[in-house]
């Protein structure tokens, strides 16, 4: 698995247009955002879909519609769906989405999908993903998640091949803010656990760009966008997700970082 160097997460599960008027919620809005972000330098999209009331849903039909639109309107863009539970969906419902849709790529929070007691179900699910060619990015929130992933890989519950992770910085700190120093503990935990995945980072708050630059410097990848932050590096409010991508691309190129 090779994640794009920059993936945009344009909406997330909880935010609405009251948080920012340019936050995309409908399939046409997400598609237009994807095109703009691809032109700005993003190689991938982390996709959430919303129902008619704007609520986050794990709806295979809506995802299929979005994926078809993106294939037509943003060819070549890496598209990853989410199984985020938001306190609403069970592991069985998360699995059902992936098994029905069989997407090319999906992000799955490790602590959510392994909430059931029967590890055999989890093992069968990840084996089915591998067989279907669905690339899984495991979402890790802390060192305990990283250690749990290492144990599951060692047991064969999660395939060791093509292992990919997203380290979430700042999600559980006051005000959902993060700093570049927050990258050190997850990378240390990853090394201590003997893992060498294709890894990426997302970060909350005004230091998002600096956190993602730190990840790029260390050989990681970046997930950027309104799901986590609406401020540019200079603390101005971004006009849209494409501006956030341009902000990161410009800063990375100024340092000579490969994108």
Structure description:
- InterPro entries: Aldolase_TIM, BKACE.
- Keywords: Metal-binding, Transferase, Zinc.
- This is 3-keto-5-aminohexanoate cleavage protein.
- It comes from Defluviimonas salinarum.
- Its cofactor is Zn(2+).
- This protein starts with 5 loop residues before the first strand and ends in a 5-residue tail after the last helix.
- The protein has an eight-stranded parallel barrel, surrounded by six helices. The chain has a two-stranded antiparallel sheet with strand order 3-4.
- It has a single domain, classed as TIM Barrel, CATH 3.20.20.
- The chain contains nine helices and ten strands.
- It is an alpha/beta fold and 259 residues long.
- 40% of the residues lie in helices and 17% in strands.
SSE-based structural type: alpha/beta
Per CATH, the class reads Alpha Beta
| CATH H-level homologous superfamily name | Aldolase class I
What percent of the residues sit in helical stretches (DSSP H or I)?
A: 25-40%
InterPro entries: Aldolase_TIM, BKACE
Pfam families: BKACE
Keywords: Metal-binding, Transferase, Zinc
Protein name: 3-keto-5-aminohexanoate cleavage protein
Blueprint (SSEs and pairs):
Layout: E1 6-8, H1 27-40, E2 44-47, E3 49-50, E4 56-57, H2 60-73, E5 78-82, H3 91-101, E6 105-109, H4 110-113, H5 119-132, E7 135-140, H6 143-155, E8 164-169, H7 184-192, E9 198-203, H8 208-217, E10 221-224, H9 241-254
Parallel strand pairs: 1-2, 1-10, 2-5, 5-6, 6-7, 7-8, 8-9, 9-10
Antiparallel strand pairs: 3-4
Helix pairs in contact: 1-2, 1-9, 2-3, 6-7, 8-9
